[in-house]
Amino acid sequence: MLTTTAAVLAIVALILILGYIAVTGVQQLTFSFLINDPKPVGEADSGIANAIVGTLILIGIASVIGLPIGILAGLYLAEFSTNRFGMVLRFLIDTLTGVPSIVVGVFAWTVLVKPMGHFSALAGGASLAILMMPIVARTTEEMIRLVPHSMREAALALGAPVWRMSLGVVLRAAMGGVATGAMLAIARIAGETAPLLFTALSYNYMSTDVMSPVASLTYQIYYYAGSPYEQWHSMAWAATLVLVGMILSINIAVKVLARNRYQ
Amino acid sequence: MSTATTERGPSPQKALAHQPTKSALGSSRWADSLFKLTTLAFALIVAGLVVIIIIEMAMNSTLSFSKFGFGFITRSIWDPVHEEFGALPFIYGTAVSSLIALFISVPVSIGIAIYLSEHAPRGLATPIAFLVQLLAAIPSVVYGLWGIFVLAPLLRNQIYPALQKSLGFLPIFKGNINGLGLLTAGIILSIMVVPIVTAVTTDVMRAVPASQREAALALGATKWEATLIILQNARSGITGAIILGLGRAVGETMAVTMVIGNRPEISASLFDPSFTIASAIANEFTEATTEIYRHALVELGLILFVITFIINASARLLVYAVTRGQGKVAHA
Question: ipTM above 0.85?
Fold first, then answer.
């Protein structure tokens, strides 16, 4: 009875939050909101197009850096690291998962922004990539471990070298699961703000230059929420609806796909 | 694990077509070790980042460390204008807001975990677990936005006045109520911590052998008593789950920054504005004009990193011991 109440409580909190976002956000969400750049307070047709594009650029940079490194690291953990050394690696990677994202932001500032002398989309994407790598590595490892041993033996028995067995047979068989993990990692970093505060910063206009600051949905929400203007508050809610809609659809799609696969 | 199986001796079928010749075998062995080394290099990149982050941040906080030494941790002055820095108000804010979060979320999380692993009908457990995990998918900045415009007004107008009326004699519930402060941050954090504590607790409870429950029931225990036996068995893993939740709360930045009020002072009342380590960095880093100011902020980041490292390391060791590394901790 008491335990049921606890479960109900958590779901009610979820519904309250999502419901409020949906109801408040939808009032401001128009087509022109999605295709226009931000305008000064009071002007009509203000939008978040630059922030949507910026978020996609940041996710793109993070994926290009983070996915290959994470997947190959996961491959090593699953295929070669059975000893104590592997345990240490796994432990360090798990610890990296728990590093606060703001700390990663400070780190990216010291190694990228400070030497370069200016904020950039590249620095923002790199800090998101750091957050992505341990998640991708560990899910890749788990998915590869699920591949039946007989498939490995079959590949080796056919004369394939280990690298072909790993890449062509094992990783390919696990590809669906690895892609799922990658999608979840993308959903996770899409909502990050803290590492962007002093790496990608923000920019008021459309920009696709990776060496200059770029806007993002999360930074924009943070900025609007802290402003004194009613109009910007409602823009924050609409931007939130776009962001949360994006992230939740990835999560739900992954869930549905995963269920279909294991049925 | 499979390198040994590639070492094949000469076989009778060697003359057959499509069999690797000796030289091909040699080159594939060479390619195999190259492949292994490449993947190892990438694994080392990811694992080594932890070490690199520590070194890099230590190098960027030398100015404040040489000026204040370890006293930085116990000083309670934060005065950028006179270049006097101390971390105590931030450590206090971080500790108190995280403890409030655990105080609220741990009973709820363990309740959900018991429901999911013991009571829930088969068809209901998976969707409910998924919905609870969706709470973790909502971005921190969105919790902050919701906290400012929905939760804080509700607390300021309804709940805090009632709390002050009934428990106002306690120093923690005295003072002005403005909605943004330590307690509000703790409440927002408690919602954000529930998914991770629930997920790990459910995992460790399911890892307890079924024979334990069956034995308890066979000895005449009620269903609730059997559940207590399971909890007893899983207690080190549950401790790990709680510590993991603490790690999450300690490092949380955006939501806290938006509702804690941002004032670097220690005060007894939970209604008063405060500051956490993470929110101080988020708020002041781009405004840091002097070199030592920035070094002091990086040193705060280093302290936060060390705290979360210790928390996460101990939590994972506890959870590994129960689930033998099979749990879903990596996703949490």
Answer: yes
